[in-house]
Write a structure and sequence with these properties.
This protein has 400 residues and is of the alpha+beta class. 24% of the residues lie in helices and 22% in strands. The chain has one domain. The strands form five sheets. Strands 4-14-11-5-6 form a five-stranded mixed beta sheet, with helices on both faces. The longest helix has 41 residues.
């Protein structure tokens, strides 16, 4: 009979069998786990309390099966703002250099900066060229739980046990809220990746396998590159390519970003302001194969780096299927009518201002106590503004 019953079972014969196999006295023979492993099950072996009908009445030791969940993508959080959901961003466009009138030359080559009876006008106006962009709108949601004051007490043997249950419930409540917020952050990342692909700037979408084959003369595929004879060399090359993109982002230029017609906006992203999110498997391979042979400092030491188990769906770790929204070259919002799909997203590097979220008006509030029903309700509110600015630097790496 399995352990998962209220009866007690003699285990001496089982223990002897395990010991004999462990010490080599007997050969390997099957062990029946049902005879000694206590499996967590949802079938009640005793009466239940009245409120939830999901917790048995007092038996013996109680284990509160919850632990705090540490949120992912912390680098995406931006400054919280309480007053309203409109954020403006002031961008400065570059203008062409001008001739220095103090060194102008005449047609004959002689210096002719200033002629008689004329002056150089130092009061001519040249206004800075400024582009203002705005983030507007936000998303709200609510979560709620009912807290019983008296009915649940039959399930616990003392006040400390009941207090542990309530603390566990609140931890679960916060974990649930944290994971909802994490879903928001995954959506922000997926939107940024899909937007970079849609905009079509060639330097902003790095096709690692295509470039590697062109550089080496090989014809590897996404499958054959994984073979042991190929993978280490490819990883070392890929890491160098990623580091090259990171370095180019530190240069003040118009690369890796959407340009608005009429505004020559050049930006630079220091390594400390770069967000580096890579597929966890590839980041671990970089560490094992590329960085193990690197004896000097590299950009991963200084950037905000995080391994990503999956971008959008946990069963498809390297895939996105997303209809992005981004600003086009005219400065207007473009909402894609078709989804951007890719099953080979390795990673993304972006400026800290390119993607993020701002959470405000968040609270956890309790209703008045219901004296007749002996309970009160808790409500969690959040107002979140998701921000994406493709005029900042973004580079996506694909395994194709």
């Amino acid at each position: 009979m399995p352990v998962n019953s209220m009866s007690k079972e003699q285990a001496y014969q089982l223990i002897k069998n395990i010991h004999d196999q462990a010490t080599g006295l007997t050969a390997l023979t099957p062990i029946d786990a049902t005879s000694f492993v206590s499996v967590a099950n949802a079938t009640m072996q005793a009466g239940t309390e009245a409120a939830l009908s999901a917790i048995s009445q007092v038996l013996t030791r109680t284990i509160i099966a919850v632990r705090p969940y540490d949120e992912k993508f912390k680098g995406l959080q931006m400054t919280a703002d309480q007053w309203g959901g409109i954020i403006r961003k002031i961008n400065f466009a570059d203008q062409d250099a001008e001739a220095d009138p103090s060194y102008l030359l005449s047609a004959s080559g002689a210096q002719d900066a200033v002629t008689n009876d004329e002056s150089v006008d130092q009061y001519k106006v040249k206004k800075p060229k400024v582009l203002e962009t705005r983030y507007v709108g936000s998303d709200v949601w609510m979560g709620s739980y009912t807290i019983y004051r008296e009915q649940l007490k039959t399930a616990f043997e003392n006040e400390a046990n009941f207090g542990s249950f309530m603390a566990g419930l609140m931890t679960h409540f916060m974990n649930e809220r944290t994971q909802w917020l994490e879903g928001v952050k995954r959506a922000i990342l997926a939107n940024g990746i899909a937007s970079a692909i849609s905009i079509g700037r060639t330097e902003a979408v790095v096709h690692l396998l295509t470039e590697y084959n062109a550089a080496t003369g090989l014809t590897l595929t996404a499958q054959t590159v994984m073979q042991p004879a190929n993978f280490k060399a490819f990883n070392e090359w890929a890491f160098a390519r990623v580091q090259e993109v990171s370095r180019l982002m530190t240069e003040r230029s118009g690369l890796f970003q959407q340009q608005i017609t009429g505004y020559n906006i050049n930006r630079h992203t220091p390594v400390a302001d770069q967000r580096v999110y890579f597929n966890a498997k590839f980041l671990e391979q970089f560490s094992a194969m590329a960085l193990a042979d690197t004896y000097h400092d590299n950009f991963l030491r200084y950037a905000d780096v995080e391994p990503v188990s999956y971008w959008q769906a946990i069963k498809s770790p390297m895939s996105i299927n997303y209809k992005p929204t981004y600003v086009d070259a005219t400065g207007a919002i473009k909402a894609s009518v078709t989804a951007v799909t890719s099953d080979v997203v390795v990673g993304v590097i972006f400026d800290r201002d390119a993607m993020g979220y701002n959470i405000y008006n968040q609270s956890i509030d309790a209703s008045p106590f219901n004296a007749k029903g002996q309970y009160y309700n808790l409500f969690s509110h959040a107002d979140v503004q998701m921000q994406s600015d493709m005029t900042e630097k973004v580079a996506v790496f694909l395994l194709d």
